[in-house]
Amino acid sequence: xxxxxxxxxxxxxxxxxxxxxxxxxWILLLAVTLLNLANxxxxxxxxxxxxxxxxxxxxxxxxxxxxxxISYGLCIPFCLLAVYVVERKGLxxxxxxxxxxxxxxxxxxxxxxxxxVWGGQAWWSPSFSFKLxxxxxxxxxxxxxxxxxxxxxVSQNWFGEKERTLATLILGMSNPLGLVxxxxxxxxxISNPSQVPLLNLVWFLPAIPGFLLTVGGVRSSLPPTPPSxxxxxxxxxxxxxFLRTIMKLARNRxxxxxxxxxxxxxxxxxxxxxxxxxILCSRGYSDSLAGVAAAFIIISGFIASFPxxxxxxxxxxxxLITKCACIPAILTLVVSTWMLIxxxxxxxxxxxxxxxxxSSLGIYPIxxxxxxxxxxxxxxxxxxxxxxLSSAIQGSVLMFTENFFNKPLxxxxxxxxxxxxxxxxxxxxxxxxxxxxxxxxxKDYTHYLIYINSYMIILVVIYVIFxxxxxxxxxENAAGRLMTANSSExxxxxxxxxxxxxxxxxxxxxxxxxxxxxxxxVE
Length: 523
Hints:
The protein is an all-alpha fold. Helices cover 70% and strands 1% of the residues.
């Protein structure tokens, strides 16, 4: 095994820099992807079948909302801890913490309802099952930031320049992909309250291989040799104190705008994913349609991210691409405010949600790359973790302020078409809510939609008008390649002057970065 210094020498002792990537990077990418899928799919699954879950656990609608909301809310305090741990202790240690919390939390949720999967005798009361499920979701919520803050750190330190954007795209979109799986598949599996235990079992399964890959396959925080000039430069730089890094970010105008805009956009999507089933059932739509609509937000964004990511790789104009995508987003937000409260327009509701996904999630991986570009050479996990913290804060605020903007349905025609009550009483949904029985209350979400969409439009305008930055990491990569080429040319010229090299036997030295796919460095 060669040292990091000797790894920077080319063949036969030339000064040509060799940047090496390892096939084990794909194990790391797969582990992070699976853990993200497990966390986000299980989190949003309860929101997609809220009324069935409320009836199964024999709790009210606001109480069952506690299951996904506690997971999301705990991200706020634990995000700061995760950022500190990953930055100080390294990527591997942070992933191990996140994997253990995800696995233990998912197992608690699974054990809470496991006997009912095969129709056996319950081990405990519905009340205790509900509390154990909330505890399990709380643990997965604690573990989520340890995994969600690492995508750009993984792509920057393990993947070469040509692979980095693709790696960021896959890792970054694993979060919304988990949302779409939980939102789309769960309503198809859970058609009545007795099937809720299947939810806890199915969405625990992705955590198992993710946990095993992390514990057994991720052996180090960094590869033995860096994959790019910017990774080599950042690795050799002196590490700043954690608080100094935070203060430097707090004075970075470009980062503050991304912190606000990207965090707000992801918080908005998370809020919409959590509340969409309740919004649509109040207008008479089924759980299946709500699940499809929520899924199309993610699916369309996931699909759109690939051509947008490819375009960003080819032209490198990240800022222009993101700002062009923001313009139609404003129109889509205005239209969705009206469309989501209209009955009997199921197809157009799905189309509107798809457009929301394209204009918001399509640029998510590019925004992650931009956050690293404007903050290089600061630690990537701190940057991504703080953006995730912003998402958790803004998303929690948008969710918890819902009760200030909604109101009960009053009109008779609205009460007749609503599908929010799993077991409505003879007097309709309002009677169910007033009598103290479990179930989801149908509400008018008009003012709430105006509130969250107006908030998002303001953030879009701020980003389009005020954001600009230098591509600091790209410049470092270009400078590193140029320095290597110049050094090689000087060495070759010096050899010719001294007569050490015969004209007929001059060997051209290729001083461009060389990428090799080996599990071990060249000896």
